[in-house]
Amino acid sequence: MHVHQNIFLKEYNTFRIGAYAKYFAQFRSVEELKVLLEIQKNTPSKLILGGGSNILFTQNYEGIILKNEIPGIDIIAEDENFVYIKAGAGVNWHNFVQYCVNHNFGGLENLSLIPGNVGATPMQNIGAYGVEIKDVFYELEAFHHEEKVIQKFTANDCEFGYRESIFKKNLKGQFVILNVTFRLNKKPVFHISYGAIEEELEKMHIKDLNIKAISNAVIHIRKSKLPDPELIGNAGSFFKNPVIGKRHFQETQQICELQKMDPPFFKIHEDLYKIPAGWLIEQCGWKGFRKKDAGCYEKQALVLVNYGNATGKDIFNLSEEIAISVKEKFGITLEREVNIV
Ligand code: FAD
Ligand code: EPU
Asked: What is the full DSSP assignment across 313-330?
């Protein structure tokens, strides 16, 4: 455990932004974290980093970045139907999902291949292909920076929503998530109605459905749609899909009718509608757009990309232009999903 100075962050964020951190340290336990917080008590700003796959550095970081590398995967309890597995915040998410899939513990297979680490998954209640972690979340332990105590949070305490949790709202910046416990199914329940999963399974000629096959189908779909951060810098969806009320939705439909467009939508319930941000952005002409090294991905307009040497500001400015044009054309405000630093 060592505090480094002036660390280049390009390898620590999947947008591959070349910003610097004034101080940087890794920790593998809460004891190490406590020591680091003590050493750095006069450094005013602290940032906890996982895999860096949902973050955009728009400037150098003048405080200390603490990279959470707490390891460990442990089965802590089980009964006839469920297994309770605790994973350290620093465990790579996809490796953890594969561990569960290989043991036939069901619930995480639809969340295969999402980059990042276990500790960040509750932050925005990660989701994909019809499943969110709130569906299998049991509890987490987190350390309060100031009060120096470990607190347990149940799913209720976390206030999970669509790409939301209490850690992004009221408790923002206050806790370091140390570990997360999931309750997984020994008798898996399959979720294959979302999007292209069924189609993909058919192509794979799967006769006896199992969670490994679902995981493989999801991996295949994701690889065909999303840019691999190893090749093109990105942080997945840059914005959330907007969720709007019925009246606003009807107004949007009228705007679209006038322009001879038919917006795709998902009815959450009678009064709430979700419209794909990727569609809105594509209709504004941004898909495949590139300005210097900042771009809007050619296969998925919701993903902004760094073709090499874009700065965080280049990406952020592009996101501003995109959001303004969507607002002007459709009257819809896009909210960023990515954490801006
Ligand atoms: P980081 O980027 O390191 O951190 C994200 C935020 O959480 C930061 O604010 C950070 O300060 C905070 N944080 C991180 N760890 C901790 C901790 N232990 N305690 C307290 N705070 C912490 N997301 C989805 O939901 N669904 C998807 O399908 C999806 N697909 C993606 C595809 C690609 C190609 C990419 C690049 C990203 C995708 N994402 C997706 C976004 C991202 O992978 C997830 O949000 C992921 O959970 C972020 O994990 P991380 O460890 O990289 O977090
Ligand atoms: N679409 C377009 N043009 C585009 C992209 C999308 O028209 O360029 C429209 C299409 O109608 C498509 C619809 O948008 O059917 C939905 O697209 P897609 O299935 O690719 O999913 P998404 O809504 O863009 C969301 C999540 C992803 C998650 C996938 C799969 C958000 C913000 N994003 O994307 O999560 O992997 O669904 O479940 O909810 C992330 O959060 O980083 C992320 C990648």
From this structure: HHHHHHHHHHHHHHHHHH
Q: Which among 163, 165, 215, 319 is annotated as catalytic? A: 163
Residue 124's CATH number: 3.30.465.10
pTM of the model: 0.97
Which band of pLDDT confidence, cut at 50, 70 and 90, is reported for residue 52? very high
Whole-angstrom distance, CA of residue 339 vs CA of residue 323: 16
CA distance 61 to 46: 9
* pLDDT band for position 44 (cuts 50, 70, 90): confident
Q: Which residue has the tokens 């009257």?
A: 331
Q: Is the shortest distance between the CB of 49 and ligand 1 below 6 Å?
A: yes
Gap from CA of 15 to ligand 2 centroid (Å): 18
Looking up residue 8, the CATH number of its domain turns out to be: 3.30.43.10
- The bound ligand whose nearest atom lies closest to the alpha carbon of 115 is 1
Is ligand 1 within 6 A of the CB of residue 127?
A: yes
The answer to whether the CB of 318 is under 6 A from ligand 1 is no
Sheet of strand 233-237, all strands in order from the earlier edge strand to the far edge: 233-237, 303-306, 294-296, 290-291
Q: Give the Cα separation of 13 and 308 in Å (integer).
A: 13
Q: State yes or no: is 163 an active-site residue.
A: yes
Q: How far is 269 from 35, CA to CA, in rounded Å?
A: 49
* Residue 196 confidence (pLDDT): 87
Residue 151 has pLDDT above 80, yes or no: yes
Looking at 19, 40, 68, which one is the last position of a domain?
68
- Name which residue sits closest to atom 43 of ligand 2, judged by CA: 237
Of 68, 91, 106, which marks where a domain is finished? 68
Range of the domain at 91: 73-225
Q: Where are the beta strands (DSSP E) in 19-174?
A: 20-27, 46-49, 55-56, 61-68, 73-78, 82-88, 127-128, 131-132, 137-144, 150-154
Structural domains in the chain (count): 3
